[in-house]
Amino acid sequence: MTLKRLFIQHLRNLGAVDITPSAQVNLIYGENGSGKTSILEAINVLGVGRSFRSHKHKPLINHHQTSFTVFGKVNAEGVEVPVGVNRQANGEAVFKANGMLVSSAAMLASYLPLQVINSDTFLLLEGSPKIRRQFMDWLVFHVEPGFFQVWKDAQRCLKHRNSLLRRDRMDRFELATWDKELAQYSHQIHVFRQECMRQFCETFYLLVQEFIAIEGVSLTYYCGWDEEKDYAAILADSVERDKRQGFTQVGSHRADLRITINGYPAAEVLSRGQQKLLVCALKIAQGYLFSKITGRRCIYLIDDLPAELDEHHRSLLVRWLDAMETQTFVTGVEKQALLDAWQELPATEIKLFHVEQGNVQAIV
Ligand SMILES: Nc1ncnc2c1ncn2[C@@H]1O[C@H](COP(=O)(O)OP(=O)(O)O)[C@@H](O)[C@H]1O
Ligand SMILES: [Mg+2]
């Protein structure tokens, strides 16, 4: 997948942006506050319906406007697919793909599979399990067509079960009905995740050795309950405890990907720099496996590359991106620092974009 054309209007400080990106590398430079991250944010909106900086939509709308629009032409295996998002200050949203209205932002994701690397990405190691679950589920969502529906069904059952648990007079029969359904969906989610993570670990271990010299890295998928036991039985046994807490305490909604170094949590033993490299390796492994399984390519959005990685590791990352032949959008304050990262790859088609006070200019 590549983004062939990108049009942005009234998103943050961006007035009217209309660019034709390179199918390979796009370097976006400009002073702090010029609008670089906002461009990546706009691409993210096109891919998943929202920003990676905030779940709220209002902050994205230019202060002097009542809506923003992002429109793109995606090259999907030789077929051009127009995709667009419009969001209004009153909360209304329109998502369009291939000339048709689509009901949810999730439907956009299959047209534009994105990987984001920014300062928040580094929370993957030290942040809550939710962040790692989202990381896992990105891959499962993109490679297992049945996953999203099952995930939504499980969420629905969980919501009903939790609201029943909070009632003064809980109907045990009703609870048993939800438990049965929830157990079934949770098991399906587990099977999807387990298989995906098995393949992911294989890819990651190969890659991490080349990318960083850290011994003893281990990834372990945790399904959210004691795998030795039957989840339906666990649910039945935990009713009283769950009732006291007011929510379901074990299940696929508690799954995690545990990342350790010789048995210790990676976030506790690695230096900041090593953590960043490990996270980059995780992100690259995911994009690589995505391509291997689906035959498609995802797009990488990398915010402020020079600020995040030192020169040596920047060029390592760049070589990996190049080997995967993915389209990449990278930002940085200094033009030269960005160009230097790609200097060993003269065959790559690089496009430069200069951002100044919300205006974007292609540099030829
Ligand atoms: N809703 C908005 N309307 C207008 N300007 C905004 C809005 N939200 C943020 N900005 C401004 O947009 C500018 C660009 O931000 P950003 O893309 O983060 O810059 P960069 O990544 O180049 O440092 C900032 O100066 C910020 O104050
Ligand atoms: Mg920025």
Ligands (ions, cofactors included) = adenosine-5'-diphosphate, magnesium ion
Strand order of the largest sheet: 2-1-4-5-6-7
Could you tell me how far the N terminus lies from the C terminus, measured between alpha carbons in angstroms? Answer: 24 Å
Instruction: Give the helix tally.
Output: 13
Write the layout of secondary structure elements.
Blueprint: E1 2-11, E2 14-19, E3 25-29, H1 36-48, E4 67-76, E5 79-88, E6 93-97, E7 100-102, H2 106-109, E8 114-117, H3 123-126, H4 129-143, H5 147-165, H6 172-211, E9 217-222, H7 231-237, H8 239-245, E10 256-261, E11 264-265, H9 266-269, H10 272-294, E12 299-302, H11 305-308, H12 311-324, E13 327-332, H13 335-341, E14 350-356, E15 359-363
Parallel strand pairs: 3-13, 3-14, 8-12, 12-13
Antiparallel strand pairs: 1-2, 1-4, 4-5, 5-6, 6-7, 9-10, 10-11, 14-15
Helix pairs in contact: 4-6, 5-6, 6-7, 6-10, 10-12
